[in-house]
Design brief:
ABC transporter involved in vitamin B12 uptake, BtuC; 282 residues; 0% strand; mainly alpha
Length: 282
Amino acid sequence: MEWGVLSPTLLRALVTSLLVSVSCAVIGVFVVLRGLSFMGAGVAHAAFSGSAMAILLGVNPLAGALVFSILLAVVAGYTGLRGRVKMDVAIGAFFAFSMALGILFISMTPGYVVRAWWLIMGDVLGVSDWDLLFATYVTVIVLLSVVFFLRGFQLVTFDLEFALASGLRVNLYHYLMLLLVAFVVTIAVKCVGALLVYAVLIAPAAAAREISHGFWEMLAYSVAISVASTLTGISLSLTFNVSPSALIAVIASLVFLALIIASPKKRICKTCRMYRFRFKRV
């Protein structure tokens, strides 16, 4: 497929990718700041398993991915809040199980090799109208949730003790954030695949953190890096006829690595033992 005049397929892929990049960048900021990076990988593998089961049953793969993603998010969130098992341990326990279950479902499906490929590596140029509609809904939900619940999200992220002391319903915001991660990862799996979701969810936000000194600045940089990586990846894929999903993940990851090496925050705070954000209590 070449650029030329934008075909409906290419236009649909571009719009869906941009929506996914924005939603991943916004939620990725909270994921990175809360130290929930492993959650993205765990939910991605759960989405892979759910998609594989849906294909086996002959239903929409996104429906299965969404159910499994929400299930993992709720279970991991519950175990983390109860304190009996750390959240990363719970995610790790389901990590391999989800992947193995997904492979089992795929192996039971006729023509499983082709189907397994797009589940693992993504198919951004093969998104449907339904995928575009779902991506639109997810992006709107993410943005509205951040706007209306920003204060709670910030308190839970930056000052959990104060949030508890002030009577904030911490559990509600905790589960809401995990559900948003599940929604975002579900649609991202369709675009970039289960193996590359981690990169598009975490890399832009992590890169933005290296050059930011405040929440809003980090949010803006994260969206900018994510959108730029997406547009560049798709453009290069059409030019050189390679996987757009892989290029998007590679570019986002390279930006993160480059900013780690050249981060100005290291020079500014080199006299400090640690350099971190300075956020005002909201």
